[in-house]
Amino acid sequence: MSDDYPSLLRSEQMSLVQLFVPTEVAHDAVAELGELGNVQFKDLNPNVNPFQRSFVGEIRRVDEMGRRVRFFSTQIEQEKDVVPIRPLYDSAPLIVVGPRAPQAMDELDVTLAAHEQRLTQMNESYQKLSERTKELIEARHVLRETAVFFDKAHHQTDIRTSFDDSSAPLLQHDDRENQYSVGTGVQFDLEFVAGTIERVRVPTFERVLWRVLRGNLYMNHTDILEPFVDPVTGAETRKNVFIIFAHGDALLAKIRKVAESMGATLYPIDANADKRSESLREVEGRLEDLQNVLYNTGSSRRTELTKIGESLRSWQDVVRKEKLIYETLNLFNFDVRRKTLIAEGWVPTRDITTIQLALRHATSRAPACLPFYMSFTIMDSYGVASYQEVNPGLFAVITFPFLFAVMFGDIGHGFIIFVAALYMILAERKLARVDLGEIMGQFFYGRYIILLMGLFSMYTGLMYNDIFSKSLHIWHSAWDFPSNTTDTKIVGIDNGHRYSFGLDPGWHGADNNLVFVNSYKMKMSVVLGVIHMTFALCLQFPNHLKFKRPIDIYANFIPQMIFLQSIFGYLVICILYKWSVDWSKATTQPPSLLNMLISMFLSPGKVDPSEQLYAGQPFVQVVLLLLAAICVPWLLVTKPYLAWKDMHKIKEQGYVSISGEGDGNGIHRNSSDEVLEGEEEGNGRAIAEDGDDGEHHDFGEVVIHQVIHTIEFCLGCISHTASYLRLWALSLAHAQLSEVLWSMTLEAWLEPTGVFEWIVLIVMGVFWFVLTVFILCLMEGLSAFLHALRLHWVEANSKHFEGGGYAFTPLTFANPDSKE
Amino acid sequence: MEALLFNVDGGFLEGTVRGYKAGILTQSHYANLTQCESLEDFRTQLSATDYGNFLANEPLPISTATIADKATQILVDQFKYLRNNAVEPLSKFLDYITYAYMIDNVILLITGTLHERDTHELIERCHPLGVFESMPALCVASNVEELFQSVLVETPLAPYFRDCLSASDLDDLNIEIIRNTVYKAYLEDFYAYCGSLGGPTADVMQRILSFEADRRTVNITINSFNTELSKDERARLFPAIGRLFPEGNNQLAKADEIDQVRSVCENVGEYRQFFADAGSSSDEDSGILSQLEDRFFQTEVHLNKMAFLQQFQYGVFYAYMKLKEQEIRNITWIAECIAQNAKDRIQDFIPIF
């Protein structure tokens, strides 16, 4: 391989390669590259219709084969008894590369066609046979049921025995049609029609008949208990036997016509009981024969299916691969003499040697070192990092759970989340194989980050000293509460201890708890926010270095940094300083930092001495304000000016620029293949620059971009800092909600005295726990998740992230859905 | 008012149908389709559209009939989905759409029976949207009275047939008269129903239905030249709605040749261009007629497209069905041209978008 290990910070080094492949080995070469799975081919003929490309014929052939294979697999699926399908890893691989490839494909094609033909034939005969069986069964039912009608109708009439042409050809439809039964007329005048009809149609049938015959009929029908199963579709139909008595040929003809058009089947029934029993015997005999034949056909069909099942998987595999290969080949260009194919594609630079090896058709296929993919795709859903850009996803691995935890700080809730994530990780292998559904699947996919979120929440919970809204007493509290006073208001006394870590539990339950915690969390969120933004801003720097854009460093990065630090950095320092001063012993009142910041803008240079934070404050503030004020025009003007100067320089030299040096938002790079990439992406800029008036466009674009950028940044600094206050708001809401939940459910029942109280305690305990999990951990967790996401996407990413890239999707044979 | 409450019941379905509409083939799809060399190419092209893989599992020599059937099947499935999710009054509205197909099916069955075709074959040829339970029994009837009493009386079409009970014998001319009488009654009823819904539905639908009525009027007039249909009878077949009604209808009832039809149509601005440049060559009537037919279809497509411009109304459902039908006609036409190698006429379809 290569010495470089893939880094998480930046994307893989890519190279644009051009392959010249002789036509005869193109197929094999692509197959080889597909096995490697790290080349992304470019479409070299985007203007050609899909069906006008070179390999359409092959694709169509493969499609046809695919259709056959699909036909087999649906046939196998429909089979009631499970037909064994040999898994892919077990079957002998079909070789479709190398010199014998075309023959192998031809053979496969022939095999598939033969199998299909045999299978359809068997299906047909099977279907025909089942159809006949069905008819016979129906006939049997009709015979039996009509017997009942007749018995009722004329049990007292003399039963005559006579032998009719009992070989009523049940199997010959046409004959039967003619031989619809008309009563023998000897002892029984009424004529009738008998048959079967689908049960759902019976009411309509009856109604229509009644109307057509104006009520001149007697109809009787009974249900056939067992359903009829269609051999092809497997659908069940339920049928009824009917017998209709009517008088006159015209009426009977009408009945038959209606019955036929309603989808009924008519059977010839003799009015004579003996004849009926005769034909019943006959039918049963035939039925038995037929069922034997049917069984044989079924079993031979099954054998065929089993044979297919043995190689079905490898066929599917081959067909899928072949289709992919030809689709890829369609992306290639023929050279002028149509002897070689030209392919272009993106390749990770590290893997070039592997690919060269593969192309040389080395028999030893060195497995490609697949880039290490992170489980953290949070940033990718915002935008894929541009080529070689610093990937913020790497840092989000830690910052994201941390910001989440700041809002979700509670040891208990953090622990629940942690345990859930731990379970998912430990049961990873098992869970990965089951389909978890959309929602659970999402959680499972993010199990590692949930684990971290749980861990960090436990940490911040320790900081806030919150466990299910209660406090932990680990060390001595700094406050003593005298218990012997009778006052309604107890004032804590400072006993000189300092709580070693986190919030002093003495605050818990105090009247001014909320005031204290609010101020603490609010300031903390501002501090965290400024640190996070500063960090995000700093990520610009490696980008500018990497892409050799020194202009951007001193026209963008430095003024932005100064602007941010001189206002908000200063605020953070003031917050920290204010915390470190013991105001109970100071001469001045503790100043309000918010007012200080506001008056820093409104009345620069003046600070009320009673609210002064430190000596020399007015001077420092004026200097900082001036610095920030300078940064705005600096940011606004420098880059457009440089671009303008550049343009002039080029014009003076008489050149017409093709690729503008100082491109607006700095996406543009100078190395040649990146220009190519720009063109390939089809982004309008690269094309616009080819035009004659490219410079004017370009310059205007730079100006507009920079104006927008400046305004966005300066206003953004203020609003983004304010936006980080959501850390405070959410953590406050979380703490309050869990406290309310505690006091509303459990608190009142904590000291049970009798059995009833115990029961209530248990019920309440369960109730409390369920609510904790669903409301506090899931709902609140989701809201904290969303807010943390927003802080990353909006507040942090806007400082540096371009995200104009697209993911690398190489040609690969690895099956995307592994379930097959 | 509709804007306030329409979405309670109709919002989801309107959204669905607008989504379906987005899948109607566009000009560039047609451009690709017309370039196909064979029906397999055609299938490949269609698989890139919303039709998807609807032909993927068909064994290879594909017939144009299969294509039309499968495409219709998709439309029917979509319609059934809409119908199953609809509540009053939309469900009634959708039912009204199916009545047209039912009328066609009834006429098809009667005609088929008259010419002694196989009933099952006839039933298979019926439009799936117009199938009703007792439909197969139609082939028993030998006169209108019987037809009505035995089958139609329980269908929603019964009121429409009441007017034509007088025609006793079933022959080709009578069937044609029945068809037109029934269709006239249906159109008037649908028109009134849309009017009762009020609001934008009435605006949009009555515009479309007026055109439909006028188209029928003109067609009936032209087709009845030189036949045994008397002018009184002809007048009775004209729907009593539409923009030509009543003066135009009266004049058309008396018309004897195509120039009179033209002069009537020229009274309505939108219809003026139907006969616009066919004026000189009045000798070849068939040319004018086929051109007229095309223009009718174009206007219909145009009106149906306009229906999508207005929200909170049911016209979109009707318009979608009509547009989709036109699209199926188009792809069938193209497929037919490809199959019969008649490339010169392949462009004679009516583009929708």
From TrEMBL, chain A:
Indicate whether Transport appears among the record's keywords. Answer: yes
Q: A single GO CC term, please?
A: fungal-type vacuole membrane
InterPro entries documented for this protein: V-ATPase_116kDa_su, V-type_ATPase_116kDa_su_euka
| Secretion signal, residue range per the UniProt entry | none
Please give one Pfam family short name.
Answer: V_ATPase_I
- Residues annotated as coiled-coil are 105-139
Q: Which UniProt keywords apply?
A: Coiled coil, Hydrogen ion transport, Ion transport, Membrane, Transmembrane, Transmembrane helix, Transport
> Per UniProt, what is the membrane topology?
Multi-pass membrane protein
Q: Which residue intervals make up region (Disordered)?
A: 665-690
Q: Which GO terms describe its molecular function?
A: ATPase binding; proton-transporting ATPase activity, rotational mechanism
Its subcellular locations are: Membrane
User: What name is this protein filed under?
Assistant: V-type proton ATPase subunit a
Annotated source species:
Lentinula edodes (Shiitake mushroom)
UniProtKB/TrEMBL annotation, chain B:
* Species assigned in the record: Lentinula edodes (Shiitake mushroom)
Any one GO cellular component localisation term in the record: vacuole
* Pfam assignment, any one: vATP-synt_AC39
Looking at the keywords, is Ion transport present? Answer: yes
GO MF terms here are: proton-transporting ATPase activity, rotational mechanism
Note whether Ion transport occurs among the keywords. yes
Q: Entry's Gene3D superfamilies?
A: ATP synthase (C/AC39) subunit, domain 3, V-type ATP synthase subunit C domain
Assigned keywords, A-Z: Hydrogen ion transport, Ion transport, Transport
Q: What is this protein called?
A: V-type proton ATPase subunit
Subunit composition and interactions: V-ATPase is a heteromultimeric enzyme composed of a peripheral catalytic V1 complex (components A to H) attached to an integral membrane V0 proton pore complex (components: a, c, c', c'', d, e, f and VOA1). V-ATPase is a heteromultimeric enzyme made up of two complexes: the ATP-hydrolytic V1 complex and the proton translocation V0 complex.
Superkingdom, taxonomy of origin: Eukaryota
UniProt lists the family membership as follows: Belongs to the V-ATPase V0D/AC39 subunit family.
Described by its record, this protein's role is as follows: Subunit of the integral membrane V0 complex of vacuolar ATPase. Vacuolar ATPase is responsible for acidifying a variety of intracellular compartments in eukaryotic cells, thus providing most of the energy required for transport processes in the vacuolar system.
